[in-house]
Amino acid sequence: MSEIRFSKDHEWVKLEGDTATVGITVYAQEQLGDVVFVDLPAVGKKVEKGKEMAVVESVKAASEVYAPLTGEVVEVNAALSDAPATVNEDAMGKGWFARLKIADKGELGGLMDEAAYKAYVEGLH
Amino acid sequence: MTAPANGAPQVRTISGNKGLQIEEPLIFEQGMQGRSGVDLPAIPQHKDRLGGLKRKSEIGLPGLSEPQVVRHYTKLSQKNFAIDMGVYPLGSCTMKHNPRLNEKMARLPGIGDLHPMQPVSTVQGALELIDRLAHWLKVLTNMPAVAMSPAAGAHGELCGIMTIRAALLAKGDARKRILVPESAHGTNPATAAACGYVVDPVPADERGRVDLAAFKAKLGSDVAGTMITNPNTCGLFENDIIDIADAVHGAGGYFYCDGANFNAIVGRVRPGDLGVDAMHINLHKTFSTPHGGGGPGSGPVVLSAALAPYAPVPYVVHGANGFDLVEQDGKAFGRLKGFHGQMGMFVRALAYMMSHGSDGLRQASGDAVLNANYILAGLKDELTPAFPGTCMHEALFNDEFLDGTDVSTLDFAKAMIDEGYHPMTMYFPLVVHGALLMEPTETESKDGLDRYIDVIKGLAKRAKAGDAAYFHGAPYHTPRRRLDETLAARQPILRWKPEAPKKAAE
Amino acid sequence: MRYLPLTDDDRRAMLRRIGVASTEALYSDVPEKARLKGAVDLPPVMGELEVERTMSGLAAKNLGAGSCPSFLGAGAYRHHIPASVDHLIQRGEFLTSYTPYQPEVTQGTLQYLFEFQTQVALLTGMEVANASMYDGATATVEAVMMANRVTRRSRAIISGGLHPHYREVIATHAKFTGFEAALAPADAVGNEDLAKMIDANTSCVVVQNPSFFGHVKDLSGLAKACQAAGALLVVAVTEIVSLGAVTPPGEMGADIVTAEGQSLGVPLSYGGPYVGLFATRDKFIRQMPGRLTGQTVDVDGKRGWVLTLSTREQHIRREKATSNICTNSGLCALAFNIHLTLLGEAGLTKLAQLNHATASRLADRLSAIPGVKLVTETFFNEFTLKLPKPAAPVVEALAKKRILGGVPVSRLYPGDAALADLLLVAATETVSDEDIAAYEAALKEVLK
C-alpha cells in the first residue's frame, strides 16, 4: 500500500515496495513561482536523507531539494527538462522528480503524514 | 491587457511607432551583403602567410552604411533610462552624476592612446597618474597600500580574499571559515566560496546591524576573517565596527570590508581607523566613473600593513629614477588580470577627485546622507521604514505598507517607471521582506527630491486605496511593457539565428 | 561645488524637516574617535581648467602610441576606430545607464547586448556567447573553472603559446581556488605537443590561436585528442580581428572560446578597460559565467529582451554561483558592437586582410636585415623576430628615436635567457609605408 509522507523542506515521498517517488509539494511550487528548470541527479547516484539531491529554479531563485530518505536514484523524470512547468501544474503527480531505491523503510517514520504536513504549513504563516 | 487608468485612447499608427518612440529591428534584420560603413584602402601585394588556415566560411555579419548604424544606435539609446534623465535611486549602486570632464580627460592624447606594453620610460606620466590616484585613495582611507589592478568590485573582493589567504598561508594555516552577514551582497559569499572557504552566515540584530554577541560566538581559530559591508546593505553604519575588527583580529583573522557604500563616509570616516585590513572601492560608484549599461568598473583594494606584502602584481613604485611598474614579485599572491588595471577609469576617478578636492568630497558625502534622510523623513509615514532612526546614504523600507493591497514591491516599482523614475533597488537586502532600497546620492536637488517624495507618497496612497489593477498592469508608457522572464528562462534564445531555408515546393 | 545642487538654505530646510541640528548629527553611529573633524590632507576643490592643466601635464610626459610609428601587440592592438563609435557610446542614455535589471526602461542596452552576443558567437564559430567579462585573461580563467565544473576534473593543461599574463592569472586562480594548472614551457617555435600531456584528470587544454608568439595553427587534431579523453578544448584569441581571416576556433572543434575584444572599438588606454568575450556550446549554457541576454515577449506580445538564466549568478546563487562576477564591461561591449556593425562582413574581412598584408610586408623587410631572423612562419598580424642581441635594450633605443618597435619577450618572460633575443612585432592597418621605412632604418641603426 502506498502512502504519502512529507518532509519539513516541502518534499513529498510515495513509497511502493522498495521504491520511493519524490517530488516537491504544492506549497513549495507556489512559493517558488514559475519553475524554469530542474537540475536532477544522475541515475545511480547515492543520496542521503537530508542532503541535497536536486535543485529547482524559478526566474528569481534556486532552491535545493533534499532527499527525504537515504537510497539510490533509479529513475529521474526526464520529461521535466522540456516542460518544467509540469512542476507547477501537477506537483504531486506528473511533476515528480526522481525515484529512489531506499535502504531503510524505518526512515519514513521521521516524516509527516498528510494531516501533520497541512498543519505544519498553516503554522508557517 | 489592462487599459491605462487615465482612460487615454489607444492610438494606432501605420508604422507602429509612437512619435519619438520608434521601433528598431536587430542589425541582422537590416543588413545587406557587401555593404559596409567603413572605407579601407586596397590590399597591397604581400606573401600569404596564413598557412592554409584562411577562413573559408562566411561569418554571417550584416552590412550597414554609416547613416544606418548611427540611426540604429541612436534609436536604441532612446529606449534607455539614464542618470542624465532623472532620479535613479538604486540603493548600493550610487547612481550619481557622471561629469563630462572625466570623459574629456580619458581621451587626452598621451593618455587614451597609450599601449600597455610600451617601455616604462615612455609612460612616466601614466605611472605618475596611477600613483597619484593611489595616494588619494590611501589618504581618504588611511591605509598604507592599495592594489590597483582589480577590474570591478567583485574582482576587488577576490583580490582581498586571496591576499588574506596568502597572508594566512605564509603563517602556515589558510583556515576554513569566513563570517559573512546574512544581509551581504551575493558577491561576498560567492567570492569566499570560490577561494575554498565555508561561508558562515552572521545574523543581524533588530536594529539591522551585525549581532556582535552572535559574531563573537562564531569566532575560532579556524576563522580566516570576515567580510562586512560598512555602511551596511541596510544603509546603516555598524556601530560596533571597531569591536568587530578587534574581535576578528583577536582570533587571528582579517577584516575585509566591502566598500560599495563608501559614498556615505568619504572624507568623514577612514576605514583604516576602523580596523579594516582590506577594502575594495568601486570607482564606478563612489568616484563617478560611468556605469555604462553594466560596466566597465574598477575595484582597487586598499590594504593594511599586514596584507600589503601579498598584494598582486603589477604595481607602481616611485624611486629615485622615476616611476616603475613591478610585474614580478615572489611574495605577491599572483596576478588577477591582463595588463595593469582599468586605466581609463583611473583617469576619470582622479579627475573627479581633483575636481571636488578634499573639502568637496566631504561635502558630497554629507549631502548624500542628507538627501537619503530627507527621503526617509518624507516617506516614513506613508511607507514602512525597515529600521528605526536615521540612515546613512540610503533609505530602506519593507513592504508592510502594502499589506492587504495585493500590490507587491515589484508592482510598485513598475508604477514608478511610468512616473519618470528608475525604480529603487528591490528585494535586496534579503533580510528585509519585499525590500525597497533608495539611494538618491548627493547630485539630486532638493526640488527634485520634493517631487520624487510627492510621487512616491501618491503611489503608496493609490495602492492603499485599492487600485491594485493599475499596479499589476504597469508600466503602460514604456517602449516595452512587462516582459515574460519565465519564457526567457524556459526557452532560452540567446542570439539571433538566420531563418532555416524554406523547403522547396513540391 | 559645481556637481552639488544643494544650497546652504536647502540644507537648513532639510535638516529641519529631518529633525536634526546638523549633517554631523546624522553620523552619530560612527564611533567618536573615528569621526574626522575636518577635511583630509588633500588639495581643495579645482575648476575644470585647473584639472585639465594637471592632466595635460601628466599626458605630456608620455609618448602616445597614437602619435608615432607603433608596432606593439602582445595582447592589445592599435586599430583605427571610426569616429561614430565614440560619439554614440557617449550618448548619455548609454553612458549613464545601468545594468538592465528593469528591462522596460533598458531595451536599448538589452538589444545591443543581444546583438553583441550574436556577433561573438558568429565570429568564434560557436553556438552561444555571454554579455562580456572584464578582459581576455579573466574570461580564459573563467573558462578553465567552467571546464572543471563540467568535467568534474581539476587539472588544466596550459599551452606555452598562451599569453603569459593569462597563464599567470590561471596559475593564481589554481593556487587559490583549488585546481592544478600544468604549465607547458614557453613555445616560441610553435612545435609543442600538448596532446601527450592529457590524462584522465584533465578538465581542459587551453591554447591561444594565433599564439602569443604569432603562430596560427590548425587545432582540430588537439580537439580530437581532448574529446577522446573527455576533456574540453579552450581556445583564447587575443587579436579578435584575426577571426576575419583565420578559421575560427569553433570550426576547429573548440568547446569554449575566450577572447580579448579590445581590437574592435576599444582604445588602448594603457591596458584597460577592455572587454572579455566568452562563447561556448548550447549544452553548457547553465554552466556559463557572466550575464546573458535572452529574447522574449511583453504583455502586448511585442518582442523584447531581458537578462536571463540569472540563477547561475552571484546575486541569486551566492556561494553556489558559477562566478562572482557582477559588473562586466557593458560600454566596451557596445563600442565593440558598433565598430563591428560599421565594418560588417565585407569590412571586417577586408580589414583582416589589410592587417595580414601589412604585417607580412613588414616581416619581409625586417627579416632581410642582417642578423634578424623571422621565427614565426605562419601568422596573422603579429610575429616573433630573433635579434642578434637582447631585445629589451633594442626596444629602449628605438623608443628614444620615437619608434615603438615591438614588445621584448623578456618583459613577459624575465629571467629566461633563451627568450631574451626575441621581439614580438605587430602591424595593423594603422601602420603606413612610411612607418615601415622608418622602423627598418632605425632597427638597422640600432643593431649596428
Helices and strands in order, then pairings?
The complex is a heterotrimer of chains A (125), B (506) and C (448).
Chain A: E1 4-6, E2 11-16, E3 19-24, H1 26-32, E4 35-39, E5 46-47, E6 52-58, E7 62-66, E8 71-76, H2 86-89, E9 98-102, H3 114-123
Chain B: H1 66-77, H2 100-106, H3 124-141, E1 145-147, H4 153-170, E2 177-181, H5 187-194, E3 198-202, H6 212-218, E4 223-229, H7 241-250, E5 254-258, E6 278-280, E7 301-303, E8 315-319, E9 322-326, H8 343-379, E10 384-385, E11 395-398, H9 409-418, E12 425-426, E13 436-438, H10 446-464, H11 468-473, H12 485-490
Parallel strand pairs in B: 2-3, 2-4, 4-5, 5-6
Antiparallel strand pairs in B: 1-7, 6-7, 8-9, 10-11, 11-13, 12-13
Chain C: H1 8-18, H2 48-59, H3 83-89, H4 92-95, H5 107-124, E1 128-129, H6 136-151, E2 155-158, H7 164-177, E3 180-183, E4 202-208, H8 220-229, E5 232-237, H9 249-252, E6 256-260, E7 276-280, E8 293-297, E9 303-307, H10 314-317, H11 330-367, E10 373-374, E11 382-386, H12 391-400, E12 407-408, H13 409-412, E13 422-426, H14 433-447
Parallel strand pairs in C: 2-3, 2-4, 4-5, 5-6
Antiparallel strand pairs in C: 1-7, 6-7, 8-9, 10-11, 11-13, 12-13
Helix pairs in contact in C: 3-11, 5-11, 6-7
What does this structure look like?
The complex is a heterotrimer of chains A (125), B (506) and C (448). By secondary structure, chain A is α+β, with helices and mostly antiparallel strands. Chain A has one domain (4-123): RNA polymerase II/Efflux pump adaptor protein, barrel-sandwich hybrid domain (OB fold (Dihydrolipoamide Acetyltransferase, E2P), Beta Barrel), CATH 2.40.50.100. In chain A, 17% of the residues lie in helices and 36% in strands. Chain A contains 3 helices and 9 strands. Chain B has 506 residues and is α/β, with parallel strands linked by helices. Chain B has a domain at 101-355: 3-Layer(aba) Sandwich (Aspartate Aminotransferase, domain 2), CATH 3.40.640.10. Chain B has helices spanning 66-77, 100-106, 124-141, 153-170, 187-194, 212-218, 241-250, 343-379, 409-418, 446-464, 468-473, 485-490; strands at residues 145-147, 177-181, 198-202, 223-229, 254-258, 278-280, 301-303, 315-319, 322-326, 384-385, 395-398, 425-426, 436-438. The two termini of chain B are 42 Å apart. The model of chain B has no long low-confidence stretch (mean pLDDT 95). Chain C folds into 2 domains: 83-339, 3-Layer(aba) Sandwich (Aspartate Aminotransferase, domain 2), CATH 3.40.640.10; 345-447, Aspartate Aminotransferase, domain 1 (Alpha-Beta Complex). Chain C contains 14 helices and 13 strands. Chain C has a 7-stranded mixed β-sheet, with helices on both faces. Chain C has a 4-stranded antiparallel β-sheet with strand order 10-11-13-12. A two-stranded antiparallel sheet of chain C has the order 8-9. Chains in contact: A-B, A-C, B-C.
